[in-house]
Amino acid sequence: MNQQNTILDVRSTEEFSAGHVAGSINIPLHEIPQRLSEIKTMKQPLILCCASGNRSSQATAYLKKLGIECKNGGSWLDLNFN
Questions:
Q1: DSSP letters of 17-28?
Q2: pLDDT for the residue numbered 32
Q3: Which of 4, 16, 49, 63 could share a disulfide with 68, CB 3.0–4.6 Å?
Q4: pLDDT by residue (tens digit) across 42-73?
Q5: Which CATH number fits domain 6-80: 3.80.30.20, 3.40.250.10, 3.30.70.920, 3.40.50.10580?
Q6: Distance spanning both ends of the chain, measured CA to CA
Q7: Is the pLDDT of residue 1 over 50?
Q8: DSSP label of 70
Q9: Rounded Cα distance, 43 and 61, in Å
Q10: How far apart are CA 40 and CA 7, in angstroms?
Q11: What distance in Å separates the CA atoms of residue 36 and residue 77, rounded to the nearest whole number?
Protein backbone atom coordinates (compact mmCIF):
# COMPACT_ATOMS: atom_id res chain seq x y z
CA MET A 1 0.00 0.00 0.00
CA ASN A 2 1.47 3.37 -0.93
CA GLN A 3 1.62 6.29 1.46
CA GLN A 4 -0.52 8.56 -0.69
CA ASN A 5 -3.42 7.96 1.66
CA THR A 6 -4.32 6.96 5.20
CA ILE A 7 -5.59 3.52 6.16
CA LEU A 8 -8.21 3.85 8.86
CA ASP A 9 -9.16 0.63 10.66
CA VAL A 10 -12.62 0.90 12.25
CA ARG A 11 -12.49 -2.39 14.19
CA SER A 12 -12.45 -2.48 18.00
CA THR A 13 -9.23 -1.75 19.84
CA GLU A 14 -9.01 -5.43 20.79
CA GLU A 15 -9.37 -6.60 17.19
CA PHE A 16 -6.78 -4.04 16.04
CA SER A 17 -4.33 -5.20 18.72
CA ALA A 18 -4.58 -8.78 17.45
CA GLY A 19 -3.37 -7.73 13.98
CA HIS A 20 -3.59 -4.82 11.54
CA VAL A 21 -2.12 -3.25 8.42
CA ALA A 22 1.26 -1.71 9.18
CA GLY A 23 0.93 2.06 9.51
CA SER A 24 -2.85 2.00 9.81
CA ILE A 25 -4.73 4.09 12.36
CA ASN A 26 -7.38 2.56 14.62
CA ILE A 27 -10.54 4.53 15.28
CA PRO A 28 -13.38 2.16 16.24
CA LEU A 29 -16.59 2.75 14.27
CA HIS A 30 -18.53 4.05 17.29
CA GLU A 31 -15.82 6.69 17.98
CA ILE A 32 -15.82 8.25 14.50
CA PRO A 33 -18.39 11.01 15.23
CA GLN A 34 -16.42 12.17 18.28
CA ARG A 35 -13.09 12.10 16.44
CA LEU A 36 -14.06 13.93 13.24
CA SER A 37 -11.64 16.81 13.81
CA GLU A 38 -8.78 14.29 14.01
CA ILE A 39 -10.00 12.41 10.93
CA LYS A 40 -10.24 15.63 8.89
CA THR A 41 -6.50 16.25 9.43
CA MET A 42 -5.49 12.87 7.96
CA LYS A 43 -4.04 12.59 4.47
CA GLN A 44 -6.89 11.85 2.08
CA PRO A 45 -8.22 9.80 0.44
CA LEU A 46 -8.80 7.65 3.49
CA ILE A 47 -9.05 3.90 2.94
CA LEU A 48 -11.29 2.35 5.56
CA CYS A 49 -11.09 -1.27 6.60
CA CYS A 50 -12.45 -3.64 9.23
CA ALA A 51 -12.87 -7.43 9.54
CA SER A 52 -15.30 -8.07 6.67
CA GLY A 53 -16.03 -4.70 5.05
CA ASN A 54 -19.37 -4.10 6.79
CA ARG A 55 -18.27 -1.58 9.42
CA SER A 56 -15.90 0.13 7.00
CA SER A 57 -18.80 0.45 4.55
CA GLN A 58 -20.88 2.21 7.21
CA ALA A 59 -17.98 4.50 8.10
CA THR A 60 -17.29 5.30 4.44
CA ALA A 61 -20.91 6.29 3.80
CA TYR A 62 -20.93 8.50 6.91
CA LEU A 63 -17.65 10.26 6.12
CA LYS A 64 -18.54 10.80 2.44
CA LYS A 65 -21.73 12.60 3.54
CA LEU A 66 -19.46 14.98 5.46
CA GLY A 67 -17.32 15.64 2.40
CA ILE A 68 -14.33 13.54 3.45
CA GLU A 69 -12.65 11.79 0.52
CA CYS A 70 -12.59 8.09 1.36
CA LYS A 71 -13.29 4.60 0.08
CA ASN A 72 -14.13 1.24 1.57
CA GLY A 73 -11.09 -1.03 1.47
CA GLY A 74 -13.01 -4.01 2.87
CA SER A 75 -11.22 -6.51 5.06
CA TRP A 76 -7.91 -5.43 6.59
CA LEU A 77 -6.54 -8.83 5.55
CA ASP A 78 -7.19 -8.04 1.88
CA LEU A 79 -5.35 -4.73 2.22
CA ASN A 80 -2.54 -6.31 4.19
CA PHE A 81 -1.72 -9.00 1.66
CA ASN A 82 -2.31 -7.17 -1.66
A1: HH---TT-EE--
A2: 98
A3: 63
A4: 999 999 999 999 999 999 999 999 999 999 99
A5: 3.40.250.10
A6: 8
A7: no
A8: E
A9: 18
A10: 13
A11: 25
